[in-house]
Amino acid sequence: MIEGGRRLEGVVAPPGAKNAALPIMAACLLCESEVILHRVPRITDVDVMAAILESLGARVREQPGGTLIIDASSVNSHTAPYALVSKLNASFDVTGALLGRFGLAEVPRPGGCILGPRAVDMHLHGFESLGARVDLEHGSVIVSAPALRGARIALAKPSVGATKNVLLASVRARGTTTIENAAREPEVTDLGDFLNALGARVSGHGGPTITVEGVAKLHACEYTIIPDRLVAGTYLLAGAITSGDVTVTGVDPVMAASLCEHLTATGCEVSAQGVSIRARGARKWKPVNVRTAPYPGFPTDLQPPFVAYLALASGSSTVEETIFDARFVYVGELLRMGADITVTGRTARVTGVAKLKDAVVVAPDIRAGGSLVLAALAAEGTTEIGGLEYIDRGYEFLEERLAALGARVVRASGVTPIMTQPDIGSTMKLPRVVAPFRSQSP
Ligand code: UD1
Hints:
Low-confidence stretches: 414-442
Largest sheet: 4 strands, mixed
Helix content: 25-40%
Structural class: alpha+beta
Strand content: 15-25%
Shape: elongated
CATH superfamily of the largest domain: Enolpyruvate transferase domain
Strand order of the largest sheet: 23-24-1-25
Distance between the termini: 20 Å
Bound molecules: uridine-diphosphate-N-acetylglucosamine
Radius of gyration: 22 Å
Number of strands: 25
């Protein structure tokens, strides 16, 4: 429950990047020695990935402050359980890692999600190019190879998932692999850096062509995951949409360049110093057209949060989604808060309104949750947001961090309808019913 209309102000340090942490955890399967990971975000997706690794026989220990110690020396299964894998698409990353380590993996094929079907054709084509045989049995992908050998793999498009999976499978293959048209997202770069810390020989990651010289064995390492640029972007937008003043620390501004450029074009004052980015929101802001694109383009994951911001601009913006088929599903919830948005296919026309108003809304996916939170922060009245299980998948200690910036936000469950709760202050004392990832403070 968020009481809107308060100006957010202050400094916030985003947690580690979810989209780097998940493949890096999967990559631990490639290694027979213990790996220590720092800045692992305390989100439920990490819990699920940890449970998948444990189900395969790995030992995962947690230390306070976002450190995980993963020992995959005892992995004794190549079959990932459907009950866990079906909870997040990124769990398909274990396929490349298991294939790379054992020459065999059996992983349920991702079905789809609210964003649309999650195709894996490029992942599978990559595995085949490395010499693996791919079968689909009872809904699971079975990949097997007596010996993987390096190959030249040109991706039809720069898929983040396919790049990560092929990279994982090739690290211990014999010979040289090149991945052309590779995804350049910073989380892919982080995965490459992590693999090198393990003793792999990966180069060119961060660019369109990645080269992997296969190595026979990997060794122990200690590694710190990059901060989450997508969470950082959500906080910058929280500053902008409340006409506030928010600084995110620890994030390389280059990683958030496209968001910062678009924010600046609306009249928000954005400045960067070292690894800090500051957004000072305008009282009124201008519309701007947005087109999502692979990195370094505007991130599809920030499209829903940015649409919430544009919903209050002085004029109309066009937002084109080029990555996912169905990433405007959440728009209906914004309409219930008074937004004026028309979606045609993959394009949304967002006409700014003078104000958004409270409503009971439900987040249909992680970043849509971010969008609804932003809308609620700026809206009149107290908005009740459901679907917290999605928000908890991607945002660590969101309400605590927002509260530290001056938001009035409380996590509640089973509360009476919002209309009978005009004073959110009284609900601030409600017990926290849905616990975050484990039970540590931020
Ligand atoms: C990752 C991110 C997600 C982000 C997305 C794009 C993780 C855990 N998730 O998702 O947050 O929004 O990158 O930056 O890192 N596709 C195919 N065939 C394939 C693979 C993908 O057609 O073999 C399509 C997908 O259906 C989708 C598009 O390509 O429409 C992008 O997918 P991809 O870049 O692979 O994204 P994900 O790895 O799923």
